[in-house]
Amino acid sequence: MNISNSEQLHKQAQQHIVGGVNSPSRAYKGVGGGTPIYMERGQGAYFWDVDGNKYIDFLAAYGPIITGHAHPHITEAITKAAHNGVLYGTPTALENKFAKMLKDAIPSLEKVRFVNSGTEAVMTTIRVARAYTKRNKIIKFAGCYHGHSDPVLVQAGSGPATLGTPDSAGVPQAIAQDVITVPFNDIDAYKEAISQWGDEVAAVLVEPIVGNFGIVEPKPGFLEQVNELTHGAGALVIYDEVITAFRFTYGSAQQILNIEPDMTAMGKIIGGGLPIGAYGGRKDIMEQVAPLGPAYQAGTMAGNPASMSAGIACLEVLNQEGVYQRMDRLGAKLEQGILAYAREYGLPVTINRLIGALTVYFSEREVENYQDAENTDGEMFAKFFKLILQEGINLAPSKYEAWFLTTEHSEADIDQTLDAVKKAFAAMSQ
Ligand code: PLP
Question: What is the total count of domains within the chain?
Answer without folding.
Answer: 2
